[in-house]
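Protein modeling request. Please complete all fields; requests missing the sequence field cannot be processed.
Requester role: graduate student
Desired output: 3D structure, token encoding
Chains: 1
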Amino acid sequence: MTSPLLPTGTKGDLLLLMKRRGLISLADAEAATGLTHPTLRHHLGQLERDRLVERTTKKQKRGRPSLRYGLTPQAETLFPSRDDVLLGRLLDYLQQQGDVETIRAFFEHYWEERLRDVEHRLGRVPVGDEEERLRVLAEILREQGFMPEVQRGECGLVIRECNCPFPEAVKRTRLPCQLEARFFEQIFDDRISRVTYIPDGAPACTYEFPAPEEPAAP
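Delivered output (218 residues):
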């Protein structure tokens, strides 16, 4: 049974092949699918653009290094996982043991690592290039499984997180939600308002960031 998140058709077949075998060559893909090299390169190229596949090279005893294709960490999230259920059971156990401080310390450490990663990646964006900063932030949120939508309007910036990557944890503690709000406050200097909330039944957690006030004319 395949995951409902996988692409259908040839792209899904190629991802499944890489999941089972690890790195594959064009010859491996041809043997498994019966498709020609040009067709396979086309599909693999699209998967690369979607950040689901990455290329590496393997040295040969003779001749040029050969190309190998493998799954990216983003692609791994397309396959079934019980990690979130296991995290939920771990939280249940810690709560039953009365170890609330370990739960808080774990989530705070996780969000601190996220913040450092975001600040590092945004630090490589030229100062003043707000559009690139937003693109990088959306890319990071996408990698982390939040399915973000980033929109800029006259009233400011709106970020919708259309997926919660850890729903089982949120069923047991709202600490991740509190830390997510703080995460955005630290990135956007406290100018934040959460207007919709998935645990309350909304389709997305939505954060609004008002546009900075323009200085009054002299």
